[in-house]
Amino acid sequence: MTSHEILGQQVQIPVEVRQASAFMAMYSVPTRATQSLIGYTGLEVLQYRPGHGICALVFVDYVDGDLGPYNEFGVAFMVRDHRVRGGSVMQDLKALATGRAGTLIHQLPVDGEFTMAAGRGIWGFPKVLADFDADHTGKVKRAAVSQDGRLIAGLTVKPGVPLPGSGTNTSLEAYTHLDGVTRHTAWDMNPRGARSRIGGAELHLGSHPIADELRTLGLPRRAMMTSSMPDLKMTFGDARTV
Asked: A Pfam family for this UniProt protein (predicted)?
């Protein structure tokens, strides 16, 4: 077991999130524009169909975890494993189905100083401070995130249908890039009560640069699918350099 000193406190690895809730919307985005956006990482966009990748917008309410309670908004993209170069859509779909794809955390506003320091210092997560107005408890999930009085995004997600396999562990490879270094981290999730549906999202983009960045990918548009996870547990391992 390893540990990191963050703002005078020791953080043990793996970091545990014992209770959280989340909701998300997934969008189809053009491969060329997305690859241009994430080129700084050295990673490659995964294509679920020719010329199109996947962008996920996620709001998370961390209730009980090793980094304390806080809100988070993530802009993430599905990417190929860093050891894979090139490949067909069929190969990308197989990687998705077998858990060999990765998730690049491209933007990550939060509202807690300790989690910001830990996220940046331990894993290279691009956490920045922002303001949140979120409701994770209603049937319809709503949240908005702003920074310096400028709206980044507001997202509303309607309820979906229950998903089978509740309580099943899911493992992902999370990729980050900070200060010129790309890293990858083992990220395990155990969601209970998850619901999902086709479409079901309403997205509003504001005047913040992150909103402008999302517009370059053609957002807002109809979501491919939406999901909500009212009871989510997670663990994060140590980061490794790509």
From this structure: ADC
**Does 6 fall in a domain?**
no
User: Phi then psi for 97, rounded to 5 degrees?
Assistant: -70, -30
CATH number at residue 204: 2.40.400.10
The two three-digit tokens of residue 24, written as one number: 């998300």
> What global pTM score does this model have?
0.96
Q: Which domain holds residue 155?
A: 16-241
Residue at 2 is within a domain: no
Q: Given the DSSP bridges, would you call strands 195-198 and 161-162 parallel, antiparallel or unpaired?
A: antiparallel
Count CA within 13 A, CB hemisphere, residue 173.
21
In a domain, 8, yes or no: no
Answer yes or no: are the C-beta atoms of 103 and 77 closer than 8 Å: yes
Structural domain count of the chain = 1
Residue by residue, what is the 3-state secondary structure of the chain?
Answer: CEEEEECCEEEEECEEEEEEEEEEEEEEEEHHHHHHHHHHHCCCECCCECCEEEEEEEEEEEEEECCCCEEEEEEEEEECCCCCCCCCHHHHHHHHHCCCCEEEEEEEEECCHHHHHHHHHHHCCCEEECEEEEECCCCCEEEEEEECCEEEEEEEECCCEECCCCCCCEEEEEEEEECCEEEEEEEEEEEECCEEEECCEEEEECCCHHHHHHHCCCCCCCCCEEEEEEEEEEEEEEEEEC
Tens of pLDDT, residue by residue over 156-189, are 999 999 988 666 688 889 999 999 999 999 999 9
Is 1 inside a domain boundary? Answer: no
**Residue 165 has what pLDDT?**
67
